[in-house]
Design goal:
single chain, Lipocalin, eight-stranded antiparallel β-barrel, 11% helix
Length: 180
């Protein structure tokens, strides 16, 4: 009997991090600038698979698929350019994907998710720093900075970093509930 209880306790201690599903109020966006004028955009369609527990970082994993054609900056001309061949080339590459399986505690409720972003046929390391606000519906709020030219985003005349800086900030806010 004691052996059975011990085995159950060991299995419970080895349980994976919690799986979460995205709820309404979640967002994924970006901030960039054109000729010194800042603008914001968002992706209307993205699918995050989140496994995270601050006490079990080794078992945590993010897998986020982003529908590139859902990019919107509320400017029809800019949105058309973003979806075109010089930027996202959505006719050839329908989605971007961020996969992270290495997590670090940064103190307090701050964490870093080290992973790879695949975009336009390139895959590069990207770190998402985020806060985790626990509760019945936890909130994960984070950001990452990436160099767009590393992924071929902005070809031809658009490689001029005086027009559009190389760095783009990506921001996310996920309202979560237990998956089930």
């Amino acid at each position: 009997m004691r052996l059975a209880i011990l085995a159950l306790l060991l299995c419970a201690g080895a349980a994976n991090a919690a799986d979460w599903s995205m709820q309404s109020g979640s967002s994924l966006g970006f901030v960039a600038s054109y000729q010194g004028e800042s603008f914001e955009g968002r992706f209307g369609k993205f699918t995050p698979q989140i496994r995270f527990d601050p006490a079990k970082l080794a078992d945590s994993r993010f897998d986020v698929r982003i529908a590139l054609a859902s990019a919107s900056t509320n400017n029809d001309e800019r949105d058309g350019l973003l979806k075109g061949e010089d930027f996202f080339a959505t006719g050839k590459w329908a989605e971007a994907r961020f996969v992270a399986d290495r997590f670090r505690a940064l103190g307090g409720n701050r964490y870093a998710a080290d992973g790879n972003l695949s975009l336009r046929g390139a895959s590069k390391p990207v770190t998402l720093t985020f806060t985790w606000t626990a509760g019945a519906k936890p909130v994960l709020a984070g950001e990452a900075t990436l160099n767009r030219l590393d992924f071929g985003v902005g070809s031809g005349d658009w490689t001029d970093t005086d027009l559009i800086p190389n760095e783009v900030k990506v921001k996310t806010r996920l309202v979560l509930a237990p998956a089930g």
